[in-house]
Design brief:
Blueprint: H1 2-56, H2 58-62, H3 65-87, H4 101-112, H5 116-140, E1 142-143, E2 146-147, H6 150-191
Antiparallel strand pairs: 1-2
Helix pairs in contact: 1-3, 3-5, 4-6, 5-6
């Protein structure tokens, strides 16, 4: 009889620890979604600013084809990244009854699918947008009341290349960290099945 009681006690403790584990998984999933929501909000604000700036400066933008191309590329780059982020969106979990491991494993696998090539495409579009804006500034002759000549043209374009390298490195490090966290979370979800 005592052996039976000990067995029941062990089963109850194991079940209790599993339910705590589920709560921890829910907290981790919600934190990942909060971070993605923050990034989506930032990109939506950036898109609104791009649209407002293009409406406010429509006369200056329409006078220079490089500015038009720059704004179209910036809008396209932000929109592409935003669409990739919305593809992996899920709603926050408020209780254990709304928790389904297989659903979240599928969503997290999609999140891992954001490959380096997507980052390269996004970053290339944004740097091309900056370079077209610089070409438009060259045609204008000034850049924030700074006279542009042949020597500093090279400097500005090299600065965009350095900016691309720094931004790519930082984004790649953030993506790798997110992938590690996501893979750990997926393995925890699979173990909890």
């Amino acid at each position: 009889m005592e052996e039976q009681i000990l067995k029941w006690k062990d089963m109850w403790q194991e079940q209790k620890s599993n339910s705590l584990n589920v709560n921890e998984l829910i907290v981790r999933l919600n934190q990942m979604e909060r971070n993605a929501k923050l990034l989506r909000t930032f990109l939506i604000i950036a898109l609104v600013i791009i649209i407002l700036a293009s409406l406010i400066f429509i006369a200056e933008i329409s006078a220079n084809k490089f500015y038009i191309i720059s704004y179209v590329l910036a809008f396209t780059g932000a929109f592409i990244k935003l669409m990739l982020l919305y593809r992996t969106k899920y709603s926050a979990i408020t209780n254990q009854s709304g928790f389904n491991n297989l659903y979240f494993i599928k969503k997290l696998n999609k999140k891992i699918g954001f490959k380096t090539k997507h980052l390269l495409i996004y970053m290339s579009i944004m740097v091309a947008s900056l370079n077209f804006a610089l070409l438009g500034s060259y045609k204008k002759g000034t850049f924030f009341n700074f006279v542009i000549n042949d020597e500093n043209r090279l400097f500005f374009h090299l600065a965009t290349i350095v900016l691309f390298a720094v931004a790519y490195t930082l984004n790649k490090m953030r993506m790798d960290k997110n992938k590690r966290d996501t893979l750990n979370l997926i393995s925890d979800l699979e173990n909890d099945l």
